[in-house]
Design a protein that fits this description.
It is a single chain. The chain is α+β, with helices and mostly antiparallel strands and 626 residues long. The protein is built from 28 helices and 13 strands.
């Protein structure tokens, strides 16, 4: 089994804007921006939607007014049009950046279709209703643009459906929307019995869109499915390469453009392999491919008969990728700080549990094949930019299922500066006063969350170098849990090695345990939040923290790292064994919402009204319109 390297959505949920903004103004501003963006996208990628209409808005006027009010909808601001980081770029790189932004927004159109087959239709419906003066449609459009789709989940773990009758689908837009799990398994079994192994492989690859073909299914590579749009993306990337000032970055762009024109996994692999080596470049451009959203493919491991048939034929069912675009400017100072940990990675690999039972992701000798950059964001589009209860802080890519790793490629961590910034320190202090022992507030530091995230992303590259598909719907939860515990488990070792000071050690531990408390109990489909509850329960049972008589968190600092080591060992054991039943039991035993969690959640809800968020990309919009 291979473990997929999943983005961390451990976003600091404490941020709230310091000023209130009129809902009507917010709606008009957002609608105007959306119209400008869509006009430019139509020019670049075409908009050949045969609009079917017949939608009905799902949320009431009162609910829409609340959810679009700035107290409930926060804004993460990407670089402004006059940002010093942009103005300092060479002229050639400014031109390159423009074309990369255009490519990223074409990708967003593609991913909307992977996310839900009705997203683009609904977007057109909203535009038509807005033109008629429908105020509810205006407010719905704000939410649609924020979450980038009809369906999402908010920070209270409530599912949000913007159109009546359009609930989230287990197969999203990558499987037929009327396909049930039972029919899916039945069709695959029938096709295998008829010797159609190659057809089944195409259905179960991570890069196909599955459609009905008579009483069977057929898998179409997404490059072929969205050929025209990918070709237009490739054109923009080629234009970007023509003016890029950095030879390595230029080479990567040319490889990436080539991979978008032909449905060949090896072309992606060559582009990924080059991307993972980029360290000293002025710009950042990534096409992310992650597989959180597909809840259909993972059900196969629950069918023992079908799983056995696939195993006998050497077919591995890999969940579908969803696509995101990241465009940014590399921050040299932030990147230098990140690189301080790289020399310790082989030592961390040597200290992973059961390290003699598997091949390490990171080499303990020679080049660790791990690059890392801190990036000022210009735009996050598609899967990366979907603000659905949280948004991505950083990513470790490529995932283990990707071919580039099999041909000797490495990994790259990219950290998102604008996402992690907290602009309202007063609101943060209000939160700490509500939930954290006053004597330990001196150890809480928002920058320590960034240090923890660095450890989390690097821990994705540690451990068994084989896939986790046999863990089914629990694979992402298990992997994210491993990354968190890997980050915490090595805090003492890294302090001994000189990476952290004793004071920073305390800050990381107290900040991490405090941030593990959520505003509400998550659903089982929220891998990042499920693993947080699991850790909270595990830590409470073993005395890593306690709740004071005043109802505040008190962290028993010296107990946290040893307990994290215990949990890390248990998680790695599950990954090595690849046993679905063991994984299921482990998750269910630890995914328990306790009275103390609810106590802190109630306090957090009083301090923080935020339900969702959005991104604002001033520089990207300017470049898109040029």
């Amino acid at each position: 089994m291979e473990i997929h390297k999943i983005t961390t959505n451990k976003v600091n949920q404490n941020y709230l804007p310091s000023k209130k903004e009129d809902t009507k103004l917010l709606t008009i501003q957002n609608t105007d921006r959306s119209e400008v963006l869509m006009k430019e996208l139509d020019k670049m990628a075409g908009n050949n939607i045969a609009f079917k209409g017949n939608f009905e808005l799902n949320l009431s006027k009162e609910e829409l007014e609340k959810r679009t009010n700035k107290d409930y909808l926060i804004t993460k601001k990407m670089l402004k049009a006059d940002a010093p980081e942009y103005l300092a770029l060479a002229d050639g790189d400014k031109e390159t950046l423009k074309h990369l932004v255009k490519a990223a927004y074409i990708l967003e159109k593609i991913n909307m279709q992977l996310d839900n087959p009705h997203n683009l239709e609904f977007k057109e419906y909203l535009d038509k209703e807005i033109a008629k003066g429908n105020k509810n449609a205006e407010m719905t459009k704000v939410l649609f643009d924020a979450q980038k789709g009809i369906n999402a989940i908010d920070s209270m773990s409530d599912k949000i459906h913007l159109a009546k009758g359009h609930t989230d689908l287990p197969g999203k837009g990558v499987y037929p929307e009327d396909l049930t799990k039972e029919e899916f398994h039945k069709i695959l079994t029938k096709m295998l019995n008829e010797g159609k192994d190659e057809e089944v492989k195409k259905i179960l690859t991570q890069r196909s869109v599955v459609e009905r073909k008579g009483d069977e299914l057929v898998g179409i590579d997404y490059i072929d499915k969205f050929k025209d749009d990918f070709a237009k993306m490739a054109d923009e990337i080629d234009k970007a390469a023509a003016t890029s000032t950095n030879p390595d970055f230029t080479e990567y762009l040319k490889l990436q453009a080539k991979a978008l024109r032909t449905a060949d996994p090896m072309l992606d692999a060559e582009a990924d392999k080059k991307w993972a080596t980029l360290q000293d470049t002025p710009l950042e451009f990534t096409i992310t491919r992650e597989n959180y959203e597909d809840e259909m493919t993972g059900t196969i491991v629950e069918n023992k008969e079908l799983s056995k048939m696939l195993e006998e034929r050497g077919i591995t069912p890999i969940p579908k990728d969803f696509l995101g675009g990241r465009v940014g400017i590399v921050n040299k100072k932030g990147t230098d700080a990140l690189m301080a940990i790289k020399k310790y990675l082989p030592t961390l690999a040597d200290n992973m549990p059961y390290n003699d039972e598997y091949e390490q992701n990171i080499s303990t000798k020679g080049d660790a094949k791990q690059t890392m950059v801190d990036v000022d964001l210009v735009a996050v589009t598609g899967n990366v930019g979907e603000y659905r209860g949280g948004i991505t802080l950083a990513e470790n890519l490529p995932n283990d299922d990707k071919l580039s790793l099999k041909i000797g490629g490495g990994r790259r961590n990219v950290y998102h500066r604008q996402i992690r910034f907290i602009s309202d320190k007063a609101k943060l202090q209000e939160r700490l006063d509500a939930i954290l022992d006053k004597d330990q507030q001196k150890y809480y530091l928002d920058e320590a969350d960034h240090w923890f995230t660095i450890g989390h992303e690097n821990a994705h590259s540690l451990g068994p170098k084989k896939a986790g598909e046999s863990l089914g719907k629990y694979r992402n939860i298990i992997e994210e849990n491993k990354a968190d515990m890997g980050s915490l488990a090595f805090v003492d070792l890294l302090t001994e090695l000189g990476m952290y000071t004793p004071e920073q050690r305390k800050q990381i531990i107290v900040t991490t345990v405090t941030d593990n408390f959520l505003k509400s109990k998550p659903t089982l489909s929220q891998a990042h939040r499920v693993r947080t509850v699991m850790q909270n329960k595990y830590f409470a049972d073993r005395g890593a923290y306690e709740i004071t008589p005043e109802g505040k968190i008190h962290v028993n600092i010296d107990k946290v790292v040893p307990i994290a080591k215990e949990m890390l060992a248990e998680i790695v054991r599950i990954q090595i064994d690849g046993d679905f039943d063991k994984a299921e039991k482990y998750v269910k035993d630890n995914f328990v919402w306790t009275d103390n969690m609810e106590l802190i959640a109630q306090k957090l809800q009083k301090v923080n009204k935020t339900l969702n968020g959005r991104t604002e990309s001033e520089l990207a919009e300017k470049l898109l319109a040029e």
